[in-house]
Amino acid sequence: MTKLILLGKPPAGKYQLVYNSKYFFPLRSNTFHFFMNKYDFFQVNISNHIARVSFNRPEKANSLHQPAWDEMKALFEEIDETPEIRVVVLSGEGKHFCAGIDLSLLMDIQKFQQVNCEGRKREALRKFIFHLQDCITAIEKCRKPVLAAIHHGCIGGAVDIVSACDMRYCTEDAYFTIKEIDMGLVADIGTMQRLPKIIAPGIMAEMAYTGRKVFGPEAEKIGLVNRSFPDREQMLAGVMEIARTIAAKSPLVVRGTKEILHYTRDHSVSDSLNYMVAWNAGMLMSNDLMEAFQATMMKREAKFEN
To answer: Does 156 qualify as catalytic in the annotation?
Structure first.
């Protein structure tokens, strides 16, 4: 059964709800709407501008089969287009954070052998890999910061996923492993491209060549995560506190900051400074700027539009 989660307080008086395939909108106000939790393999809960998203295949160690990959892409695209959501916390239900690609999906690759033409066979496989990459890139393209809260296993494709998140936090018993090396394939959906921008190249190479487990304390030491917590409860409390801090900031500025950080990662200092000038020339004069100034002068908490 589809579950609806109300964001904000409905306006006073009578109002009518209109369905548009994703949301219910009140005719009298556009200050709130319903986010439709229509996902089978993810739990989505939204409160105080924070989306709590959880992998929800605990019976499969939160490994992702094809429908789950497709859902993840659709979910983060929807979050990106939902103004009330300002920050995302990504975690996993059950024993593990995420075990990456479901083995059934890897077995499905055999279907490409049925294509007689070698060129078309390779073309179909190329399209399949591109799609999985796009499912993860949807996290990176989401304009809202995504905080990964990782407990126990973060395996294979899950490392690709957390590499696309803005920040990573874990428990001391969490472990990260680039498992593809033991499965006879080169990790191909993001780890090799994003993780070297996060940790030292030598450590990255060691993880990729050996597939060894990197546990929470070491993950913090090498910069793979921002912080390692004693247990899952303390980790979620700590990550939610950070999420609340971000959610209280100007959403326009937070979205712009993510854009600039990503651009800077992939470009030279000179190009990034030039892009920064163009960005602020277009975005600087906003209601949020005036609200921040007024709140500072009046010594009150700033209240920003979504």
So the answer is: no
Which residue, among 104, 109, 40, has the nearest Cα to 71 in the 3D structure?
A: 40
Q: Which CATH number fits domain 39-248: 3.90.226.10, 3.30.470.20, 3.40.50.11540, 3.40.1620.10?
A: 3.90.226.10
Residues near 122 by beta carbon (within 8 Å), at least 6 away in sequence: none
Are the beta carbons of 5 and 45 closer than 8 angstroms? yes
User: How many whole angstroms separate alpha carbon 11 and alpha carbon 26?
Assistant: 9
pTM of the model: 0.86
Token pair, residue 194, equals 């994003």
State the alpha helices, DSSP H only, in 84-213. Answer: 103-108, 118-141, 157-163, 191-194, 201-210
What pLDDT score does 278 carry?
93
**Residue of 160, 166, 220, 288 marked active site:** 160
From 46, 50, 85, 101, the catalytic residue: 101
Residues (pLDDT < 50) of the chain are: 1-34
Whether 101 is catalytic is yes
Question: Would you list the DSSP string of 250-293?
Answer: -HHHHHHHHHHHHHHHHS-HHHHHHHHHHHHHHHSS-HHHHHHH
pLDDT of 35: 53
Q: Is 188 a catalytic residue?
A: yes
For domain 250-306, give the fold.
Answer: Lyase 2-enoyl-coa Hydratase; Chain  A, domain 2 (1.10.12)
- Give domain limits for the chain: 39-248, 250-306
